[in-house]
Amino acid sequence: MYLRDMSLRHFRNYESVDMTFKNGINILLGKNAQGKTSLLEAIYVLALARSHRTSSDRDLINWDATAAQVLGCVQKQSTSVPLELDLGKTGKRAKVNHLEQAKLSQYIGQLNVILFAPEDLSLVKGSPQVRRRFIDMEFGQMNSRYLYNLSQYRTILKQRNRYLKELRNHKQSDLVLLDVLSDQLAAFGAEIIFERLKLLKELEHWAAAVHKEISQGKERLTFKYVNPLEPEQLASTDSIYEGLKALFEQKREKELFQRTTLFGPHRDDLQFFVNDKNVSTFGSQGQQRTAALSVKLAEINLMKEETGEYPVLLLDDVLSELDDSRQTHLLTAIQDKVQTFLTTTSLSGVARQLIHDPKVFHIENGKLLE
Ligand SMILES: Nc1ncnc2c1ncn2[C@@H]1O[C@H](COP(=O)(O)OP(=O)(O)OP(=O)(O)O)[C@@H](O)[C@H]1O
Fold it and tell me: Which of 88, 174, 289, 351 is 20 to 30 Å from the Cα of 316, by its Cα?
């Protein structure tokens, strides 16, 4: 798939802009603080109905306006799909083919994007939260069922945590509601964990191939999904469900004491190993970067496999963070295959040599220069 065009109204520092893109490499060129990242962000928002930079939609609306609009048309193999997102100070409306969608999970997935920003280079070394967010954002786009389960899980998790806080001197009767919430949480949690394991296995397969190539055959990248269940309990959704329920039962006193839910996909993690050594503790910075880049490139293939279409790649000032050899790998892997948007203050070195015939947008103070 590729994004054919996009229009912004009162989005960040853009008052009104209409753009037509190339199904190839699009370069967003400009000095600092002119609006390059805001354009990438608009594409991300069009895809996922939320920003990667802020959790508040209000931040996306121009300071002098009360509402913003992002419109775009996605070209797929056999159809084109117009998307529209209206952001107001009190809520948002999402339309596919001009029809308003009651649920955002019906909207997300029409345009698939992969964002690669300098902070993604800390995917391996960063906090577990970063990796869970990465997993959920990527898998949610590929699979609406995953997204649905995740949103149900989060709602029940909030209720259960609130209830655990309320339960001070608990009576036996109070625990009945806790059991109900534990049961529901285990059911959605099991679906999420099972789907994560399946998709991570596929992602690992692609990422290992890329990592092997970048390291010239010397390094073997593997993943490990970290959670408290025994390996045999992870075999099916039923066994994960039973395992989570058992944990909630066994550790009830601990959860009541700490007043929060201690088990479930919101606590799990993903670890990366190179030649069986944990990259986050034993890997060099170069190995950590190679692993992060391999995972990002692997996502492109996984999305193609899962959805039948290549996603759109958003590279936010990431080339300057990679050495020549990693830049070469990235650019040769995407060129002529994936529509790419790349922000930069100047195009030089490897990128200038390798990128042929890009469409360049010169950006200055929220406007496109002709
Ligand atoms: N809601 C908003 N309304 C108006 N202007 C905004 C809004 N939010 C951010 N801005 C401004 O938009 C400008 C562009 O920011 P953006 O992050 O897109 O710049 P950039 O070109 O990517 O810069 P850099 O290369 O430094 O990352 C900034 O000056 C910022 O203060």
Answer: 88
The pLDDT of residue 173: 65
Identify the residue whose C-alpha is closest to ligand 1 atom 18.
35
Interface confidence (ipTM) of the complex = 0.96
Q: Which residue, by CA, sits nearest to atom 30 of ligand 1?
A: 33
Q: Whose CA is nearest to atom 23 of ligand 1?
A: 33
The preferred substitution site among 8, 10, 13, 62 for testing ligand 1, maximizing ligand atoms within 8 Å of CB, is 13
Task: Find, among 97, 95, 117, the residue nearest to 51 by Cα.
Answer: 117
Q: How far is CA 104 from CA 42, 86, 136, 165, 318, in A?
A: 17, 12, 15, 30, 29
Q: How far apart are CA 38 and CA 70, in angstroms?
A: 12
Is position 34 annotated in a ligand binding site?
yes
Q: In what order do the strands lie in the sheet with 277-278?
A: 221-226, 269-274, 277-278
Task: Return the pLDDT at 347.
Answer: 83
Specify the CATH number of the domain 121-307.
1.20.1050.90
2-11, strands of its sheet edge to edge: 14-20, 2-11, 67-75, 80-88, 92-96, 99-100
Q: What distance in Å separates the CA atoms of residue 97 and residue 187, rounded to the nearest whole number?
A: 34
The verdict on whether residue 290 carries a ligand-binding annotation is no
Distance from the CA of 366 to the center of ligand 1, in angstroms? 8
Give the residue extent of every domain in the chain: 1-112+309-370, 121-307
Token output for 64: 């002098």
Q: Which residues contact 339 (CB under 8 A, 6 or more apart)?
A: 1, 2, 3, 21, 22, 23, 24, 26, 310, 312, 313
Inform me whether the pLDDT recorded for 245 exceeds 90.
yes
**The one-letter amino acid at 337:** K
Q: Which residues line ligand 1 (CB under 6 A)?
A: 12-13, 30, 32-38, 59, 61-63, 343, 345
227 is in an annotated binding site: no
Q: Which atom of ligand 1 is nearest to the CA of 39?
A: 18
Q: What is the pLDDT of residues 275-290, one digit of tens each?
A: 999 999 998 888 998 9
Task: Answer yes or no: are the C-beta atoms of 34 and 367 closer than 8 Å.
Answer: no
Say how many Å lie between the CA of residue 176 and the centre of ligand 1: 51
